[in-house]
Design a protein that fits this description.
This protein is of the alpha/beta class. The chain folds into 2 domains: 128 residues, ATPase, nucleotide binding domain (Nucleotidyltransferase, domain 5, 2-Layer Sandwich), CATH 3.30.420; 127 residues, Nucleotidyltransferase, domain 5, CATH 3.30.420. The chain is 37% helix and 28% strand. The chain contains 8 helices and 10 strands. The strands form 2 sheets. The protein has a 5-stranded mixed sheet with strand order 3-2-1-4-5, with helices on both faces. It has a 5-stranded mixed sheet with strand order 8-7-6-9-10, with helices on both faces. A hairpin with a 2-residue loop joins strand 2 and strand 3. Helix 1 packs across helix 2, helix 3 crosses helix 7 and helix 5 runs parallel beside helix 6. The protein starts with 10 loop residues before the first strand and ends with a helix.
Length: 280
């Protein structure tokens, strides 16, 4: 591994298994070396290690040569999140590398918002010889857009629920307005609508991204009542966004310990849990 003076230019492996997509990315400093994403729902435990080995072998790296491991800690599939976090903790403990837990929803929000701006705001094509932007630039691309943007990431949680949160880009800065949680989408959309209407800094656009497919009716009602710029933007989890957010935390010294890092499973707020129980 690299010395402390130049470790942030070293190799970082990023993994997310919170959804049906299993995504792995390898970065060197601010440059994406390679990324491997596949659909492996219910089979993450079988395919994750072989795919990591494949990615490292293609870069002529051994696990012990990695400097950091960034892992999506959820929320999402309980089993999937647990698998990814366990592998990350094992790698960090075994090889003495830095460990960084990253919100899977924040990575989904960042990736979805980047894709939305690339497609709708005339930004440059985000494919480069089959790979996305070579240098990590999602945060820069998102934050360079004028105005105030809200992005609502979604990971399907069934029974009308989603793992979701609220992130904002304002004054060219990225921030979290509502922390990750599991919520009933009908009441969550109503709460977002009320918040948007009464916000001191009205959002210029609101984008719902991620696993949005099963909530089309709720989102359509939101769009009709809001009336401003808004969009449903399906997006698949990409480990490069785990890597980018992980690198930011790594440089800021916000790392985790192998014994201390735990998955973020989240729980339904008590009032909504009771409402869901009545509906059932």
């Amino acid at each position: 591994m690299n010395s402390d003076n130049n470790k942030f230019t070293g190799s970082l492996l990023a993994v997310d298994t919170s959804t049906s997509s299993m995504s792995i990315a390898l970065a060197k400093g601010k440059v994406l070396v390679d990324e491997l994403t596949s659909k492996a729902e219910r089979n993450h435990s079988i395919h994750l290690i072989p795919h990591i080995q494949q990615l490292l072998a293609s870069a002529s790296l051994r696990a012990k040569e990695l400097d950091a491991f960034a892992v999506g800690v959820g929320p999402g599939s309980y089993t999937g999140v647990r698998i990814g976090v366990t592998v990350g903790k094992t790698f960090a403990w075994t090889h003495g590398m830095s460990l960084i837990g990253v919100s899977s929803l924040e990575a989904m929000a960042l990736g979805g918002m980047e894709a939305y701006f690339v497609s709708t705001k005339g930004q440059a094509d985000h494919e480069n010889n089959g790979l996305p932007f070579k240098e990590f630039s999602a945060l820069d691309r998102v934050c360079q857009t004028d105005g105030t943007s809200w992005v609502v990431p979604m990971i399907e949680a069934r029974r009308g629920q989603a793992f979701t949160a609220l992130y904002q880009v304002a004054d060219h800065r990225w921030s979290c307005l509502e922390k990750d949680g599991i919520r009933l989408m009908s009441s969550w959309a109503e709460a977002l609508l009320e918040r948007a209407r009464t916000a001191s800094q009205l959002p210029d656009r609101i984008v719902f991204t991620g696993e949005t497919e099963l909530h089309a009716e709720v989102l359509q009602r939101f769009f009709e009542e809001w009336g401003g710029e808004a969009a449903e933007w399906p997006h698949e989890m990409k480990a490069r966004h785990i890597a980018e957010l992980g690198r930011v935390k790594w440089e800021a010294g916000r790392t985790d310990t192998a014994h201390g890092l735990v998955p973020n499973y989240t729980q339904l707020p008590e009032a909504e849990a009771k409402l869901l129980g009545k509906k059932s």
